[in-house]
Amino acid sequence: MKVFASDFDNTLFFHDKDKGYIRKEDIEKIESFQSKGNLFGLCTGRALFDVFFDAKNIIDFDFYILVSGALILDKHYHILHKAVIPFPVIRDMYWHFKTKYHYSPLFVTEDNFCCIQKKIFDVETKIYQSIDEMSHLEFIGISYVLDSLEASAAVCRELNEVFGHTMTGYQNSTSVDIVFKGNSKGTGIDFIKNHLKTNKIYGIGDSYNDLPMLRTVDVAFTFPSAPRPVREQTDYLVDGIAQALDIITEQKD
């Protein structure tokens, strides 16, 4: 049995203006891979409801590493791991970046996106009027969406310097994804590896927040267009998931 973990955005799911799609050749290759008794799962910064918005009934995932490792589910959506960020730290972080830069984050629970006063993205979002109005919620992730790589890198550094005792931020292109300390796509890979009792796991990703995953998997893939730090952590450069699955199908366990 071979186990393959894939990032979602710009790795499996691609954006074309206002539309999104999964390549037909990837879908067919994943189905063929699974039909041979192999497992194909996700390792993404997205939450489950957000994945379902774009991929439900298209691919039957065998496991879900979600919200940068803060939430891990099995094939049947049973929770295997969940890490909640303490609300007092969230409140302090919110006021730190709100006061200093006027930045407002996107909050993530198991079931919803949440924002304060206005939406960050044009997706279904619960709107609250203040941070204290959200104190009863369990947040597993937070994201700041910035306007440049430089801005996201700066916020990520500051987040980890000021709040790194409780939270960790991962740069994801022009956004910063934040989870409870000790969680990452890499810890998610380790968890699934132990849970499935497999001695080898493959992975593919395209961006900075995939680095913990790519460093942890046994064989790593990315694209020629990926940033240099990402390419330097991989074993193969491929044009897509279909090609990566072809390569590992030919390898011995």
Most strands sheet: 8 strands, mixed
Could you say which overall geometry the principal axes of the C-alpha atoms support? globular
Give the quaternary arrangement of the chains.
single chain
Helix content: 25-40%
List the uncertain runs: none
Number of separate strands: 16
Note the run of SSEs as H and E.
EEEHEHEEEHEEEEHEEHEHEHEH
Strand order of the largest sheet: 7-6-5-4-1-14-15-16
Number of helices: 8
Amino-to-carboxy terminus distance = 7 Å
Structural class, judged by helices and strands? alpha/beta
Short key terms for the protein model shown above:
alpha/beta, 8-stranded mixed beta sheet, 26% strand, 253 residues, 8 helices
Polypeptide structure, described:
The chain is 32% helix and 26% strand. Helix 1 runs parallel beside helix 8. The mean pLDDT is 95. The chain is globular. The protein contains 8 helices and 16 strands. The protein starts with a strand and ends with a helix. It is α/β, with parallel strands linked by helices. The strands form 3 sheets. It has an 8-stranded mixed sheet with strand order 7-6-5-4-1-14-15-16, with helices on both faces.
Outline the secondary-structure elements.
Layout: E1 3-6, E2 13-16, E3 19-22, H1 24-35, E4 39-43, H2 48-55, E5 63-66, E6 71-74, E7 79-82, H3 87-101, E8 106-108, E9 113-116, E10 125-128, E11 141-145, H4 149-163, E12 167-172, E13 175-180, H5 185-196, E14 202-204, H6 211-216, E15 219-222, H7 228-231, E16 236-237, H8 241-250
Parallel strand pairs: 1-4, 1-14, 4-5, 9-10, 14-15, 15-16
Antiparallel strand pairs: 2-3, 5-6, 6-7, 8-9, 8-11, 11-13, 12-13
Helix pairs in contact: 1-8
